[in-house]
Model the fold of this input.
Amino acid sequence: MSVTRKAVALVSGGLDSMLAVQLMLDQGIHVEGINFFTGFCVEGHTHAIRNQDRKKEKRNNALWVAEQLGIKLHIIDVIEEYKDVVINPKHGYGANLNPCLDCKGFMVKKAHEWMQHNNFDFIITGEVIGQRPKSQRRDTMPVIARESGANDLLLRPLCAKRLPETLPEREGWVDRNKLLDFTGRSRKPQMALAREMGFADYAQPAGGCCFLTDAQYSHKLGDLWAARGERRYDFDDIMLLKVGRHLRPAPHFKLIVARDDGENNFLHGYRKRFVHLHATSHHGPLVLIDGEIRDEDLQLAAELTARFGQGKRAEQVEVEIVQLTGDSQIRTVKPIDGDAIPKEWYL
Ligand code: SF4
Done:
């Protein structure tokens, strides 16, 4: 009696992993997916918060892909462990603070542990040689297999024909002839395969999945580390970097200014952890102060708060300042002129 072999797949929610899984299902392999929640994922947060993004899809693409494929998906929270990958990447960063090579190695290592724990036989990913400048190159793909400890239990069905045989191929669990030889950055072969497999809908591929590839987000994260004098973060920090306009008038504090009602509501949930300000005489944003604001800074913070509300051209705006103790005071200020805000303050 033949044994059904079991593969665990890294499922990002993009097209590549979707196709890789389908190739394995077509070969009679039992596949289950893993999706790692690092805290830096794009979808589902900003799309749900900002007014301007209200019309965008709010689906969790990894879950949606699993549903399309008819496989089970395990969503695993790795926020704590992942910090070391972001803070100390052995292989450095990509164009921004994206530690792609270390990240891929970490995810395959976690998938390998999961595989052993759950008696699965091998791991698959949707990687394609040459698709990403750092983590998906011919010379770095073996690094991921080696450093993760997965070695030849890691199969990349979309480009396997261009890589050395893996154990699942040698053992005949999968037929190497039915694997593919995709290479390079073009998405055309993937799109053609998707059509062939009958997938009309899939998430837009490449680049948009992770805030660490975003230049502005990375700048804000770098600023946070510089202000703290050390490279550390917690989950709330990285969530708040996704929300609001961030201005740093001085090294010891910055303002997080809601840009619309959706962000106002979201920041409201954080207000008790921060000194915060809002205009009482006009409609305006909630502003959180991150850092240690001093009494002499409150005037500037109030003038900035007034500037971003509907009273920005008024002679006087009343602003409530609420301390961490809950004590509050009202200051009457003239909103700062937009031209008087140095560009470098905007993160
Ligand atoms: S883009 Fe983000 S999630 Fe993807 S490999 Fe790079 S760091 Fe990891």
Summary: The chain is about 35% helix and 15% strand. The chain has a mean pLDDT of 92.
